[in-house]
């Protein structure tokens, strides 16, 4: 998968999920658009941490083990109920970022090289 495919997939997924959530709640905000932009940027983080300089660049930050850590952190973040607007902002931004990172890993898992269990 190339960077554009990762960005479009993450942006569309985040934007559509945020839009659906707002429709359920009867809200209209800028979050679907802002979240799509944040997801498009955040989905590049795995390749920033481990640049695709060779076919074997996928190590720990592209691993199933790291995905598990992200899911555990995402569950804790999802369960957090902040009491301030600032806290609610960071919770939502964090969930979008985690989702975008996991989207990148999910797309990479569908390639012939897939993802390592742990990396080096």
Fold and architecture overview:
By secondary structure, the chain is mostly helical. Helix content is 68%, strand content 0%. The longest helix is centred in the last third of the chain and has 25 residues, at 85-109.
Helix content: 55-70%
Average pLDDT figure: 95
Segments where pLDDT lies below 50 for 5+ residues? none
The number of strands is 0
Strand content: under 5%
Topology at a glance:
Layout lengths: L2 H23 L5 H12 L2 H5 L14 H16 L5 H25 L11
Helix pairs in contact: 1-2, 1-5, 2-5, 4-5
Brief description of this entry?
This protein is 68% helix and 0% strand.
Defining traits:
single chain, 120 residues, mainly alpha, 0% strand, globular
């Amino acid at each position: 998968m190339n960077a554009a495919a990762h960005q479009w997939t993450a942006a569309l997924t985040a934007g559509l999920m945020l839009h659906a959530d707002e429709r359920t709640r009867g809200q209209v905000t800028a979050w679907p658009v802002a979240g799509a932009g944040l997801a498009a940027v955040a989905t590049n983080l795995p390749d920033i941490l481990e640049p695709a300089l060779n076919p074997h660049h996928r190590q720990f930050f592209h691993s199933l083990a790291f995905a598990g850590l992200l899911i555990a952190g995402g569950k804790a973040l999802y369960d957090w109920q902040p009491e301030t607007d600032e806290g609610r902002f960071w919770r939502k931004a964090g969930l979008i970022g985690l989702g975008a990172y996991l989207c990148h890993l999910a797309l990479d898992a569908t390639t012939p090289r897939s993802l390592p269990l742990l990396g080096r």
